[in-house]
């Protein structure tokens, strides 16, 4: 328990610092335009759980399986000096046709065979953003209007994006 206390106190301090900087930013923003809502993001980040097999022959490198709990990847690179992590980013970039700059591996996953890979700036349909903006301006899709609302539509669109990623990964599975 004593090892956890410094972590908790540093998290509290971080939370206080971010809250005070956020309140200072919100005060300065509220003076300039109090009625203008913040723009909605049209991109999302997706976290993929991957199981990595390293040091395989080059013809077998790539996506090996897509399951509900993880994506199987094989890379020819050795797990040394970050070579395998670079290869993982290349395999996912090629399979999903997204830039390598939009793929990151958090520090906690760098030395593990079970990795969390973050796909950043994944676009969601602009129609979703339009629907959420329209609902926010009072267009009648509130709780009493009988419609599912913008959150349900956004959830459906995000599910469609995730399904598209899954389909691309399945199409990229390396045949042995």
UniProtKB/TrEMBL annotation:
<dbReference type="InterPro" id="IPR003746">
    <property type="entry name" value="DUF167"/>
</dbReference>
<protein>
    <recommendedName>
        <fullName>YggU-like protein</fullName>
    </recommendedName>
</protein>
<comment type="similarity">
    <text>Belongs to the UPF0235 family.</text>
</comment>
<dbReference type="Pfam" id="PF02594">
    <property type="entry name" value="DUF167"/>
</dbReference>
<feature type="compositionally biased region" description="Basic and acidic residues">
    <location>
        <begin position="149"/>
        <end position="158"/>
    </location>
</feature>
<dbReference type="InterPro" id="IPR036591">
    <property type="entry name" value="YggU-like_sf"/>
</dbReference>
<feature type="region of interest" description="Disordered">
    <location>
        <begin position="1"/>
        <end position="40"/>
    </location>
</feature>
<feature type="compositionally biased region" description="Gly residues">
    <location>
        <begin position="137"/>
        <end position="147"/>
    </location>
</feature>
<feature type="region of interest" description="Disordered">
    <location>
        <begin position="133"/>
        <end position="158"/>
    </location>
</feature>
<feature type="compositionally biased region" description="Low complexity">
    <location>
        <begin position="14"/>
        <end position="35"/>
    </location>
</feature>
